[in-house]
Amino acid sequence: PARTCIVCTGSQGEPRAALNLMGQGRHRFVTVGDMDTVVFSSHPIPGNEAAVARLHNALARRGARLVHSGQLGVHTTGHGKADELLALHDAADPDLFIPVHGEYAHLVAHHDLALGRGMGDHRVLRCTDGDRVKLTGDGVAHAGRVPDGHVMVYESGRPVSDHLLEERRAMSGEGFVFVRVLVDGRRGRLAEPPVVDSRGWVEPGDRGDWHGRVATEVAEALAGPLADGTRDTKELGRLTRRATGRLVSRQTGRKPALVPVVEVR
């Protein structure tokens, strides 16, 4: 059709929303071009300004004409005003009430609106994420809390462990240092110098020097325990990690992810 109106998600620059996919040319069914007008009937939520600006630019590059609240009075809100909320309360006339929409200041205002309408304190409850609520014949009350932190999950729905998340943060922020140690178990010494590699820790031109320092530090740290009969790979790995971390932190002030691998032959 020559004239079609599409109402879609993405006015806040959400990366996987329909409008963002159109701006990137990745939407399966809609292609935006120079014959199209995109109307943003919204204000950027604080914190989303950069994402919204990127979306505007992406759509503009595809030739779309943009209309937003900075140009015309096209903003419309999905949030009820106080008089609209009061009309809802009058129509529903609830026995119990828990405000759930908006920032905390909005919850307080909505809570006060219900009290001002004449509801008793025991029938109005203000909650935050994680609060447990108990409903009784006398009203509504807090009943403790449940965990409410963020949980990262794989696409399959399986949660990602905190340990793995910490490793990912360290690798993305400070890089990683890999140390491979090969032990001659019969002779009680290293079979060869430790092998060290890293990424994102020091400048590429400085890696050779730093890798040599780490190898020396690890070899010196393991010499005594190996001579004393230590062969447990977990203990040798712990000593390798500690020696590496001590040098890395002391000399560079960085905290990359440390990946020790110990083999005993």
Automatic annotation (TrEMBL):
Residues 165-262 form the Ribonuclease J C-terminal domain. The keyword Ion transport does not apply. One of its GO terms (molecular function) is hydrolase activity. Gene3D superfamilies: 3.10.20.580, Metallo-hydrolase/oxidoreductase (3.40.50.10710). The keyword Kinase does not apply. Residues 75-114 form the Zn-dependent metallo-hydrolase RNA specificity domain. Keywords: Hydrolase, Metal-binding, Zinc. Residues 3-59 form the Ribonuclease J beta-CASP domain. InterPro entries: RibonucZ/Hydroxyglut_hydro, RMMBL, RNase_J_2, RNase_J_b_CASP, RNase_J_C. It holds the Pfam family RNase_J_b_CASP. This is Uncharacterized protein.
